[in-house]
Automatic annotation (TrEMBL):
Its main location: membrane. The chain crosses the membrane at residues 12-32, 64-84, 96-114, 141-158, 189-213, 225-245, 265-283. The keyword Secreted does not apply. InterPro entries: ABC_transp_permease, BCAA_transport_permease. It comes from the Bacteria. This is Branched-chain amino acid ABC transporter permease.
């Protein structure tokens, strides 16, 4: 039983990272109906920014995360302004191709600038905590708590602020938002900024646990897309729940089945849930 609870904690850690990344993709899809294939590579950039802030410039962990988030917010806004906004009236396939192009460009640039080496970021929170017989490192506990804080904060922002309400209005009905005077370009810009910041935060939290390398965002990106399909395209609760379901499933299957096949779990879950509920767990109502 102790092993089960230990793996449950590990599943919460992985699920927290997946949920934060999937939330960013969900926000962008909900506003622009754009599957941003480059999102995982923004996640990768966030990890590199935190790594270099700490190793080259001597920043402590939390200020390095803030710098990483700020940098990715700016990069996300830049991408929205110069890449995706000019394509907003073009066929959707154009934006999808542009997203793939941005993804390839970011990874290639990272390899040129920083090489393909695997780098390890030492966590300042390397201590171990024992809770009711379950062992967890401080860094993993920080990942869980910080992810919950970010998700609750995002929910409060969307539900309790005027700016957040404009994002929700755009997601519910783009035409209706236009009719009440909401500036679609500003909302899209803000959405890209929030989504990119979430990706940077997720990567910065995960960097001390995982290795940092140019293609690290590829698998995370793929799983995040599986998550938003599982949860229902554009559904924020679905992205959160789907992330934790996948994290738990991977952790348990790696322990009780075979760790070599844990990356297949995402696609097995996708097939099973799509068979039972093709629209996803929390599909948004079509109006």
């Amino acid at each position: 039983m102790d092993l089960f609870f230990q793996q449950a904690i590990n599943g919460l850690v992985v699920g927290s990272i997946y949920s934060l990344v999937a939330l960013g993709i969900t926000l962008i899809y909900g506003i622009m109906h754009l599957p941003n294939f480059a999102h995982g590579h923004l996640y990768m950039l966030g990890a590199y920014f935190t790594f270099f802030m700490m190793t080259l410039y001597g920043f402590s962990y939390w200020p390095a995360i803030l710098v990483s988030v700020a940098a990715l917010v700016l990069i996300g806004m830049l991408l929205e302004r110069i890449v995706f906004r000019p394509l907003q009236n073009a066929p959707h396939i154009n934006s999808m191709i542009a997203a793939v192009g941005v993804m390839l460009f970011i990874e290639a640039t990272a390899r040129v600038l920083w090489g393909s080496d695997y780098r390890r970021l030492d966590s300042p929170y390397g201590g171990v905590i024992n809770l009711f017989g379950i062992t967890i490192t401080q860094q993993r506990l920080i990942v869980i708590i910080a992810a919950i804080v970010l998700m609750v904060g995002l929910n409060l922002f969307l539900k309790r602020t005027v700016v957040g309400s404009t994002i929700e209005a755009m997601a519910q009905s783009r035409e209706g938002a236009f009719l009440v005077g909401i500036n679609a370009n500003r909302v899209s810009l803000l959405t890209f900024a929030i989504a990119s910041g979430l990706a940077a935060a997720a990567a910065s939290l995960a960097a001390p646990i995982n290795l940092v390398y140019p293609s690290m965002g590829a698998m995370v990106n793929l799983k995040a897309f599986v998550i938003i399909v599982l949860g229902g395209m554009g559904s924020i609760p679905g992205a959160v729940l789907g992330g934790y379901i996948l994290g738990m499933a991977e952790s348990m299957s790696g322990t009780y089945v075979n760790s070599e096949y844990k990356d297949l779990v995402a696609f097995i879950l996708l097939v099973l849930i799509m068979t039972v509920k093709p629209t996803g767990l929390f599909a948004k109502e079509v109006r």
